[in-house]
Amino acid sequence: MSCPVPAPALKDLPRVAGDLKSELEGFKPTNLKNADTQEKIVLPSAEDVAQERTHNALIAGVENFKSSSLKRTNTKEKIVLPNAQDVAAEKTEKALIAGIEHFDQSKLKHTETQEKNPLPNKDVVLQEKNHLNLLNGVEHFDKTTMKPTTTAEKIILPDTEVIEQEKGQRQLISGIENFDSSKLKHAETCEKNPLPTKEIIDQEKSA
Fold this sequence. Notes:
Elements: H1 18-25, H2 46-63, H3 84-101, H4 122-139, H5 160-177, H6 198-206
């Protein structure tokens, strides 16, 4: 027989905040606004229907598959033998690996390494000295040892012949630019078309 659970004391009940309590007491359902619920049903497209049909057909085919319709097959294992070239290459590789694994270091001969540092000859030393002297002279050049110089600008005047040619060219250009066409005289062009003589006609016929 279960024992009855005693009712909780007033002090153990949950308390509601004062501002929330006043809002709940002053709540009026008439303040609510009427809202219409719109139920939207989205129909699947033709592509979705086709995919669904394909999926259902695949599942139905898997579920209703009959293993009795399968035919028995025998697996044939083919072993391809290596040719003479492959056998020779494999033998060479195995011999090389065996030689590396069983290599006897005691058969090696002792050798001494000689480090050679050839000194430069006389010509190389002289070139190096000249190069260093040139660099030293450029780096430590004293500008105070330079003397001031004045650059003289020379203007070459044209001679008499060049001046006369320039004058003649200017007069020619001026005459062309200031030419007065009203000073030209009227001329008539006579077009001459001489007829061939009898002798020329006879020569033409005899040719």
